[in-house]
Amino acid sequence: MAEKIELTRNDRLSVAWRSQFLQGSWNYERMQNVGWAYALIPAIKKLYKTKEDRSAALKRHLEFFNTHPYVASPIIGVTLALEEERANGAPIDDTAIQGVKIGMMGPLAGIGDPVFWFTVRPILGALGASLAASGNILGPILFFVLWNVIRMSFIWYTQEFGYKAGSAITQDLSGGLLKDITKGASILGMFILAVLVERWVSIKFAVELPAKQLAKGAYINFPNGNVTGGKLQQILGDQASGLSLTKMAPNTLQANLDSLIPGLMGLLLTFFAMWLLKKKVSPIVMIVGIFIFGILMRVLHIM
Amino acid sequence: MSIISIVLVVIIAFFAGMEGILDEFQIHQPLVSATLIGLVTGHLTAGIMLGGSLQMIALGWANIGAAVAPDIALASVASSIIMVKGNNFTPAGISVAVASAIPLAVAGLFLTMIVRTVAVGLTHGADAAAKEGNYRAVERLHLVGILLQGLRIAIPTVLLIAIPASAVQSALASMPDWLTGGMTIGGGMVVAVGYAMVINMMATREVWPFFAIGFALAAVSQLTLIALGAIGVALALIYLNLSKMGGNSGGGSNGGGSGDPVGEILDQY
C-alpha cells in the first residue's frame, strides 16, 4: 500500500506565489491558460512522478481559463484538493476538474471585478491621490502597502479555504457571507464614488453675469470729502463685519450654481458619461471629446 | 538625466510593463510608477503630484474579461519622462504631462493587443512541451510572455529618452495658451468618465440612496476623505445588519427590473 501523497504548506505557498503571475502570458486564444499551468507546476511535480502522468496533467491545465486574477486563488485551492485526491487514486476524471474550473471562474470573476477593480482600487487610489495632489509621499506609500496587504492575504487565505473546502466551495458561493461582502462593498463604493464626483470633477464657468444691486445697508456708504478718524474707524469696522465696498456685487454663473449644491455640473457630466457608456460609446472617444470640449470652452472664454 | 537615472527609469518601465498585464502589485498604477520615476530623477514631489492627478483619471480603468483598458502603464511612465524632460514642475507643467498621457494610453492599447496576439504562439509552444511532460519548458514560455510585456513599455521608454530634451522642451514651450488652458479644463472634467464606468458597474436600486448621501456630505468641505470613508463603512454595516433583522420581508429587495433606476432612465433616453 503506497503512502498517501500530500501537498505540504510549502507546496501550497509556492503555488500561491506563482499564481501572482497568472496573467503573464495572457493570449487571445486560451487567455490565462499558460499562467494557470505555471502556477500549478509545483503541485504537479509533487503529485505525479511519471512522464505520462505529468504530461497529462500539464495538458489538462493548459485548457482555456480566464477569471479575475485574485479570485483565481479559491479555484486553484479547489483544484489542488481535486488533483491530490486523483493522484491518490480517487476516480476524478479530466471533465470533473475542468468542470470545476469553468463553473467557478464566471461567478467568481463577477465578484472579483466589482470588489477589487471598482471598489477597493478606486477607494485606495482616491485616498492616495488626494494625499499625493499636495506632493505628500504618504499617498503612494499608503496605496501600495494597503493594496498589497489586502491582495496577498486574500490570495493566500482564499486558496487555503478552497483547498480545505474542496469541491464543496461551489455550493458555498451561493451562501450568505460572500453576498454580504459584495453588497457592503457596493454600498461603500457608491458612497465614495459620489464623494469623488463632488470633490474631483472640476467644472468652473468663467462667465460673468450682470452685477447685482445690493440692498441699502449691505454696502458701505462712503462719505464725500474728507474722512475723519472716527469715520474711518467705522468704515474699517463695517468692512471687517462683512459689508461690501461697492454698491454692486459681482455675480458669476459659478456662484449661482454653487448656491444650489457645489459640484452639480460635475454630477450632470457624470450622468451624461454613464448614459453615453450605456449607448456603447467608447471611453476613449469620450476622453478625447472632453479634451476638445475643454479647448473650445477656453477659446470661447466660457470656462 | 544621468546614466544611472536612465537605467533606473528603464528598469521601472520594465516592471510597470509586466505589472500592466499581471495587475498584482500595482507598480504600473500612476501613483506608484510616477512617484518612482520622480524619485530616481530627483523630482520626487512633482512625480507624486503627477501620479496623483493621473490616478484620478485612471480610477475606473480595468481589464475586464478579454477587454483591454487604456494602457495606464505606458501613460504614466511616458508622461513622467515628458515632465522631467520638459523641466517644468509647476502645476501647469504637470497638467500638460497629464494631458499627454491620454494619447499615450491609447497607443499603449495597441501594443498590449499585439503582445497578447503574439502570446498565442507561446500557448502552442506550451502545448508541445506538455506533450513531452516538459514542465521546465512550460515555465520558460510563461516567463517569456511576462518578459515581452515588460519590453512593451521598456522599449518605448528608451526611444522617448533618446529624443533630445531640447526637442521635448521646445515642443512643450510652443504650445499656445488656449491649448494648455483647454487641456487643464478638460483634465478637470475627464475623471467623470472613469467614475461613470465604475458607477455603471455597481449601481442597483438598493445602493443609489447611498450615492445621494455621499454627494450631499461631500459638499461639506470640512469632512476629509478619511472621515467620509468612516461614514461610508458605518452606513454599510448598519444597512447590512438592519436588513438581516428585517427577516423574511427583506428577501424581496433583489426583485424588480434591472434594479438600477437611474440606469433605466438613462436607457430610455
UniProtKB/TrEMBL annotation, chain A:
Keyword vocabulary terms for this entry: Membrane, Transmembrane, Transmembrane helix
PROSITE patterns from the UniProt entry: PTS_EIID
UniProt keyword annotation of Mitochondrion present: no
Domain of life (superkingdom): Bacteria
One Pfam family, short name: EIID-AGA
Transmembrane segments: 123-147, 257-277, 283-300
Name by which UniProt lists this protein: PTS mannose/fructose/sorbose transporter family subunit IID
Source species of the chain: Leuconostoc kimchii
